[in-house]
Specification:
13 helices; Beta-Lactamase; alpha+beta; five-stranded mixed β-sheet; single chain; 4 domains; Helix Hairpins; five-stranded antiparallel β-sheet
């Protein structure tokens, strides 16, 4: 209650008391006129009535002031309570005991504040759940106001756009991709769902855009990262093209020689043997390609499993040289051991035999006339041109494509090796200096009784 209200109430109360006194004095005068013969003096009775009224007024005014002050204090508490609620403090309570009308009003206001607090707590909980759900999405999400300003964005969108995007900032100043802006403008102006494709939002990444109008105004934009899908699709197309090319060459050769033999009614035996040798060579090449494709599909499959078991590194190297020595028998290359420790490593012997076989065969084909292939192993302490080293483990990648086909290579051997090594929990890489041979390294985890890693190195 404001001082003005308090003053008005007090003044009204005083006026009522004064009026009451005047009325009483008038009544006394009337009574005295009718009772003049009773022996009572008129001035005396008037003074007594006046003094009684003044005494009543003196008693009533403090009481009225005290009552008005109590009411004012309670109303001021209500006003303070209302201001706290308006400022967002839903924990404010009056909690004034009593059974009068003001107490009932205060209890009702407390109950209203409690319900508001529960409602806002539930809304905030749902908002946090929604924010957590949107932040956990793989897609980038951003809400736009009808005026084109950022209303909200999830963690993925903030990671893509960086500090440029935040609530209250114009989307044009936060996102520079024209496709995103065009889709948002269409959703805001035309009130219809727009689709697009963004390739300049983040370097090297491609996004599918879905911009939809919101019922309350504005728009919601969802960006789905399709970079991996695009990469996989491109890899699939390249794989099909490479396989088709690899098969077309020997098939064309086989078809040509067979047609020549069929069309010649009396082929010479020397020519026939020469042609059949070429046909056999190309058929063998196709068979190798088919086997390597099947092997690659097997090691790339999610179901592919190796069975590592404690095996001595020296035993792996010895078995590789002994079992694969036949590969280099007809060549001038010598397969040598570079030594290996007896530490136990976790390896699948059959899978390792395939790894060593592909690496040794690869070294034999592309060794540029080297005289030895060295296979060894050592504990890991913590000639290929450099530009090719990062890609030689890709499917069908060749440093010298023409010479590779002449030697019968399929371009899949190192890709198979990479997947087998990775299935063992290791990694593989190559080191080379042009004109000085190459080294292929791969790691195997030590058996549980040992500590660290084991690196098995093949040198060409």
């Amino acid at each position: 209650m404001t001082p003005k209200v308090f003053t008005k109430l007090l003044t009204l109360l005083v006026l009522l008391l004064v009026l009451h006194t005047l009325v009483m004095e008038l009544v006394f005068h009337r009574l005295l006129e009718h009772s003049a013969g009773a022996g009572l003096g008129l001035p005396l009775l008037g003074r007594e009535a006046l003094w009684s009224g003044l005494i009543a007024l003196a008693v009533a005014i403090p009481i009225a002031a005290w009552v008005a002050s109590r009411i004012s204090i309670r109303l001021q508490r209500v006003v303070s309570f209302a201001r706290r609620i308006a400022d967002g403090d839903l924990t404010a309570r009056l909690r004034q005991p009593g059974d009068d009308e003001l107490s009932a009003m205060e209890a009702a206001l407390d109950q209203t504040a409690e319900r508001l607090g529960q409602s806002f707590a539930e809304i905030e909980s749902r908002r946090q759940e929604l924010a957590a759900m949107l932040d956990s999405m793989q897609e980038a999400v951003v809400a736009i106001t009808p005026e084109g300003y950022v209303r909200w964005s999830n963690a993925v969108m903030q990671k893509i756009a960086g500090t440029q995007i935040h609530p209250g900032r114009n989307l044009v100043h936060s996102v520079r991709d024209p496709e995103v802006l065009a889709c948002v403008r269409g959703a805001l102006d035309k009130r219809e769902v727009r689709f697009g494709r963004a390739s300049s939002l983040a370097p090297g990444r491609i996004f599918e855009i879905n911009a939809a109008p919101l019922p309350s105004g504005g728009a919601l934009v969802v960006l789905h990262d399709v970079t991996r899908i695009e990469t996989a699709e491109k890899s699939r197309r390249d794989f099909i093209a490479n396989v088709s090319h690899e098969l077309r060459t020997p098939l064309t050769s086989i078809q040509g020689y067979v047609e020549t033999l069929v069309e010649d009614p009396n082929p010479r035996s020397e020519t026939t043997r020469e042609f059949l040798a070429v046909i056999l060579k190309n058929a063998t090449r196709m068979n190798r390609l088919t086997e390597d494709l099947l092997a690659l599909a097997s090691v790339e499959s999610p179901d592919y499993r190796v069975v590592p078991q404690p095996t001595r590194a020296s035993g792996l190297v010895h078995d590789a040289i002994e079992s694969l020595g036949g590969i280099v028998v007809d060549s001038e290359v010598e397969l040598q051991s570079a030594g290996a420790p007896d530490d136990l490593v976790m390896a699948d012997p059959d899978a390792m035999n395939q790894v060593f076989g592909n690496l040794i065969e690869n070294a034999l084909k592309y060794g540029n006339g080297g005289k030895s292939i060295r296979v060894g192993a050592r504990l890991l302490d913590t000639g290929i041109p450099y530009e090719h080293l990062g890609r030689i483990f890709e499917r069908f990648y060749r440093v010298d494509k023409a010479r590779s086909r002449d030697s019968g290579g399929t371009g899949l051997g190192l890709a198979i090796v990479k997947h087998i090594v990775q299935a063992h929990g290791g990694r593989i890489w190559a080191e080379s200096e042009l004109g000085f041979g190459a080294q292929f390294h791969f790691t195997l985890l030590l058996a549980p009784a040992a500590v660290g890693e084991k690196t098995v190195v093949s040198n060409t």
